[in-house]
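Weekly sync, protein design subgroup
Attendees: M.S., D.O., the rotation student, P.L. (late)

Item 1: inverse folding check
M.S. brought a backbone from last month's batch and wanted to see whether the design step gives back something sensible before we order anything. D.O. pointed out we never logged the input encoding, so this time it goes straight into the notes. Structure tokens as presented (118 positions):
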């Protein structure tokens, strides 16, 4: 049975042990030869743009403290999910949703109390 080689096995010999040089264009070309690096750079760029937009909106709406608190409250959910054997992302998202709804309820209660006549 003959195995068909994949594209990853046909790399130039100098790519086996890449080294840094003063030629940044060549170094970037070597990095971009690897498909996972192209995917990582693309994903990182998308996340950076989205984080900038969302962060700007949160500061504009004066919710930066709530966003930071929400992210800090989600880590116990991830660790708890890992302890009981389910994926950490499930616990992370569950705690984010739970505490986000708690913030919304608290804000609604505060707004109702502020509108009452003394």
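Designed sequence read out in the meeting:
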């Amino acid at each position: 049975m003959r195995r068909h080689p994949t594209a990853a096995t046909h790399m130039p010999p100098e790519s086996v042990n890449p080294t840094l040089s003063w030629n940044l264009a060549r170094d970037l070309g070597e990095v971009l030869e690897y498909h996972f690096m192209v995917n990582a750079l693309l994903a990182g760029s998308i996340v950076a743009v989205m984080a900038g937009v969302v962060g700007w909106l949160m500061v504009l709406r004066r919710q930066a403290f709530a966003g930071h608190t929400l992210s800090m409250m989600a880590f116990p959910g991830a660790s708890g999910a890992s302890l009981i054997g389910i994926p950490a992302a499930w616990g992370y998202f569950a705690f984010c949703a739970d505490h986000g709804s708690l913030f919304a309820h608290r804000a609604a209660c505060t707004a109702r109390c502020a509108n009452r006549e003394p």
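Discussion: The radius of gyration is 24 Å. The chain has four helices and no strands.
Action: P.L. to compare against the previous round before Friday.
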